[in-house]
Specification:
By secondary structure, the protein is mostly helical. It is about 70% helix and about 0% strand. Helix 9 (about 155-170) crosses helix 11 (about 200-225) and helix 11 (about 200-225) packs antiparallel against helix 12. The chain is elongated. One of its GO terms (molecular function) is DNA binding.
């Protein structure tokens, strides 16, 4: 029998506290008799300050830990495939939980973007460490050759393999962020600017920069696929000699045109 005495009677299935028996097993913070939770049960909205006190704030990812994990992931991928990478395979390889990876990197696509940014960033660091100077054509080519030599170390060849793999992913997914393509465009623009500084016209500089970059990328892929670095290095030396010859020919043609133009002006002045 239910006794109604100004709201203090017990409903069937409730204990003396007035809670359902199953409620005792639930977190007391949700069902405690305080003003905030009574408001929630009665349909009233919590104030912003009350909500903030009841809602735990999520921790922000530690940037140092994230960078540490990223370094470990890249080391792992030097001997593995980017295409076959999953949070589970990474977690098993690194000895961490999948939750930790998701917490720091988000989705798999976002993790791949972080990896590709780190790889292309290291390629840029390699270029920065061996910048082709434009004081003379010879010094420019020496800097180019120095960059090539460093790029053919075992580690850098593996990084290039990851970058090539990432480029293929970008090519197949038009909605992906074009990280590798943007980096390549930046390299080509820098090479074009250097050749203009060395005396080439804009169009010739753009064309020669594109040709040399295509040759370099092709030879880097050749080295990744075959591992025949001695043969590939000989091919690069030959390509560099041919590149020098073409640049010298462009400069000679420009000098000849300027000389002819100057002679024409002088003859016209003498005729007047």
């Amino acid at each position: 029998m239910v006794v109604y005495a100004h709201g203090v009677g017990r409903w069937p299935g409730r204990d003396r506290s007035g809670l359902c028996r199953g409620d005792a097993r639930r977190p007391p913070s949700v069902y405690s008799h305080n003003g905030r939770n009574q408001n929630a049960r009665s349909g009233n909205k919590l104030t912003l300050s009350e909500h903030a006190r009841e809602t735990p704030m999520p921790r922000r990812p530690d940037p140092n830990r994230k960078q540490e994990l990223l370094e470990q992931i890249i080391e792992y991928l030097l001997g593995s495939s980017l295409a076959g990478m999953t949070f589970r395979t990474l977690a098993d390889a690194l000895g961490v939980s999948t939750y930790s990876l998701v917490y720091h990197f988000g989705t798999r696509a976002e993790l791949v973007q972080e990896i590709v940014r780190a790889i292309t960033g290291r390629q840029q660091e390699l270029l920065d460490a061996h910048p082709p100077t434009t004081a003379s054509l010879e010094s420019y080519l020496e800097g180019f050759a120095s960059y090539w030599q460093q790029s053919q170390s075992e580690r850098n060849r593996r990084l290039r393999r990851l970058e090539i793999e990432a480029a293929m992913v970008e090519a197949l997914d038009p909605e992906s962020i074009p990280i590798v393509r943007t980096a390549n465009e930046s390299y080509r623009a820098a090479a074009t600017e250097s050749l203009v500084t060395l005396g080439l016209g804009d169009e010739d500089a753009r064309r020669e920069a594109g040709v040399m970059m295509a040759l370099v990328y092709g030879m880097q892929l050749d080295a990744v696929l075959t591992g025949e670095t001695e043969r590939v290095n000989e091919n690069f030396a030959l390509a560099l000699d041919q590149f020098r010859a073409r640049i010298e020919a462009h400069r000679a043609a420009i000098a000849a045109r300027e000389t002819t133009s100057g002679s024409g002006v002088s003859k016209a002045a003498a005729a007047r």
